[in-house]
Amino acid sequence: MVGKPGMIPMVLFLTFIIAVAFSGEAFAGSPRVTADAAVLIDVADGQIYFSKNHTRRAAPASLTKLMTAVVALENGRLEDVVTIDSEAASESMGSIIDLRKGEKITLEELLTAALVISANDSTVAIASHVGGSHSSFVTMMNSKASALGLFHTRFVNTNGFHHPNHYTTAYDLALLARYALGHSKINELVQTRETAIHWIEPADREEKLRNSNRLLFGQYEGADGVKTGTTGRAGNCLIASATRDNRRLIAVALHSDDRYRDCINMFDYGFNVIKPITVVEAGEPMISVKVSDGVRNMVELVAENNLEIRLDPEDLPNVERKIIVPDPLAAPLKTGQHLGECICLLQGQELGRVKLLVAEELKRPGWHRQVWDLLFN
Q1: Is residue 358 over pLDDT 70?
Q2: Which end of the chain is more exposed for a tag (fewer CB within 10 A), N or C?
Q3: Distance CA 195, CA 112 (A)
Q4: Could you tell me if residue 31 is inside a domain?
């Protein structure tokens, strides 16, 4: 940017909002969901397609184990041999694989049990081995939550047993699932229907497992995860994922009357209603802004390229255009010069952005014009 002689270069930013704000919580034509809190996002970019109380604090039940798996994988080795201690052996509530003190089993098998059948004793054994103690491992879980930006999440245990200070939100769980699915082992295990785990000692011990997620058994085409959770306080909860036409979506339903139907309805909405729509076209005039020291005092900015986003067509009128350009602007400016950007938003969520370019060159006037302006203007 060229300023007046003697000026210290400084760039401010002018922001223009062009649109009608969206006032509702859920998107237009939203799916029927019985859950107290729910959200639907796209794995590719994290875009929210549907939300209902998605930032409200809630108990996660065994959905907690997804973070347990993440921390275990990132701080342990699948081939690690875990010797079962008395704390893990004494865990008898809910789903368990009946671990016994002194037994030896790999970390991979414990993770399999935790994610496929939600084994509570398995997570205690994982925590003792990877963290040195259950409390140290929980500290690691909370540190990872902070690192992932899950600022409305706090863990007290590894398995999801109810505690007033053990909480999260539907949106935080969706973000966690999106991250966790980036681990190939987690991605593999959350879509495993049936398998068996084996102990090292005793060598002849085997346990057959069947996934607790009913969506994996033909209830929804393309279902490929993720985790169920149930307690008296949390109710019936589910993080589900499904893939169709190379698109993977994550649905979260917390304290639901019908968690599977809720997630199916959200998936149907995401796959069948949400469509790719061009919201900005290449070369489209976006704004005219003031410029100093030029032969003209205005310059038009145009979009560099097309911007296509996935959207419910009924929500198109509610898309905001947030235009950001530097201030002050001074000539000369070249055709095609990058000067700011347009950000498209819906309900405060960024959907995409495109660069803005100078539509037509803007020169500075010749010296005689500058002298004239100095003397007579």
Answers
A1: yes
A2: C
A3: 9
A4: no
Q: Cα(317)–Cα(354) distance, rounded to whole angstroms?
A: 19
* pLDDT range class, residue 377, cuts 50, 70, 90: low
Please give the structure tokens belonging to residue 260: 């599977």
341: left (phi over 0), alpha (psi -120 to 50) or beta: beta
Question: Residue 62 burial by CB count (10 A; 0-12/13-18/19+): exposed, middle or buried?
Answer: buried
**pLDDT tens profile 210-234:** 999 999 999 999 999 999 999 999 9
118 and 178 together in one domain: yes
Residues 283 and 265 in one domain: no
pLDDT in tens, 119-141: 999 999 999 999 999 999 999 99
Question: Per-residue pLDDT tens for 142-183?
Answer: 999 999 999 999 999 999 999 999 999 999 999 999 999 999
Query: How many other CB atoms are there within 10 angstroms of residue 360's CB atom?
Result: 12
- pLDDT value of position 207: 96
- Count CB neighbours of 362 within 10 A: 23
Tell me the residue range of the domain where 155 lies: 37-273
Q: Which residues are catalytic?
A: 62, 65, 118
Strand order in the sheet with 37-42: 48-52, 37-42, 247-256, 235-244, 223-231
Mean pLDDT of the chain: 90
Kindly state whether residue 4 falls inside one of the protein's structural domains.
no
Same domain, 158 and 113: yes
The set of residues, in sequence order, having a beta carbon less than 8 Å from that of 11 and lying 6+ positions away, is 1, 326, 327
**How far apart (Å, rounded) are the C-alpha atoms in residues 35 and 48?**
17
How many domains does the chain divide into? 2
Alpha-carbon dihedral 215, 216, 221, 227, rounded to 10 degrees: 60
The reply to whether 130 and 229 lie within a common domain is: yes
- Domain boundary (230, 253, 273) is at 273
Report how far residue 145's alpha carbon sits from residue 27's, in angstroms, rounded to the nearest whole number.
28
261: enclosing H helix or E strand: helix 259-268
